[in-house]
Amino acid sequence: MCNSFFVKNFRAFEEIKIPRLAKVNLFLGKNSVGKTALLEALYLHLHPNKIRAIQDILVKKDEHLSDGGERSSIGSIVRHLFHNHQLSDFDKEGIVFAEMTKKEKPIKNKLTEIKTTIDEDDDEVLEVVKNKNKNYILLRDSFDDFHHRSRFMREHKPWDTEISGNLKFVYSSNSSSVDIVRMWDKISLTDKQDEVINALQIIEPNLTGIKFEEQNRRHEGRVAKASIDGEIVPFKSMGDGINRILYIVLNMVNAQDGYLLIDEFENGLHYSVQEKVWKIIFSLAKNLNVQVFATTHSSDCIKAFGSQWERSEEKATMHRIDYKNKQHTAMPYEFSDLDDALSTNTEVR
């Protein structure tokens, strides 16, 4: 479990420290304050394949298209991960992610570093280091090749082929039907399917099952459908709320013994069901050993989170991300401060 977190020179963050984390963690704050960037930092730090994680984040945000040209260099795109969109000077400190000691000093074996350097062939490279393991990417190479080819690094450099495994990131945007099918197949014929169906019954009590059917000849792949009172109904026709719950819970049961990141938790969820969804999150976090990190700017979401936080204060944390005087801070709340937290955020019903 990640018990603390330190970020330096990443995205909008010159530096931010979070001395204590728990099993379930909620970050709140105004729009554009850096909540999503904090989840991205956690994703990069916790991902077993740092190079793949860099690619995931840049492509998800369409930053690989930001320079317009089809043959943009890796350096011109990767710079967007660095503070103020500027690559670090060669062999100077770059992006740093770390877990911390009680004295807020980085723990050496829980440290991730991303910086630019010159390799033994006098090439300018991006160096990614975790636990003394180093990977390199040639900055002058094409990002298009980096994105579409599986072997994009120098032949003689180490290459970690491990994918994200039990690290899952639920973005604020719509889910992918391909991802849903793949995650459902992984829990096929297990008790985890029951967990998913129980969660969906928050919105549709008469739902008894899920199936995936092949589409017509014009469309490849399978589409999710629900059984409701014996009638088969396409999931896409059932509204944003039930689709959001399906995606969140499928990610969570596939993240057993790992981590789940949820950006803008409240997206698509009516305020009246959020307390029940948080109840499921807290329960599965305990039963499946999943550490959860979520963001919100909704008072409804904070209130719903608080209803579960009250039952297990030591199992959760809540922080407000602020930016004042050109510095980011993460202010921790105790449960007794919940009313204050509610007063500093805006309703988004």
From TrEMBL:
Q: Which residues form a coiled coil?
A: none
- Show the InterPro entries listed in the entry: AAA_GajA/Old/RecF-like, Bact_Antivir_Def_Nuclease, P-loop_NTPase
Pfam families on file: AAA_15
* Boundaries of every Endonuclease GajA/Old nuclease/RecF-like AAA domain copy: 3-137, 191-302
Protein's UniProt name: Endonuclease GajA/Old nuclease/RecF-like AAA domain-containing protein
The record lists the organism as Bathymodiolus thermophilus thioautotrophic gill symbiont
Give the taxonomic lineage as stored in the record: Bacteria, Pseudomonadati, Pseudomonadota, Gammaproteobacteria, sulfur-oxidizing symbionts
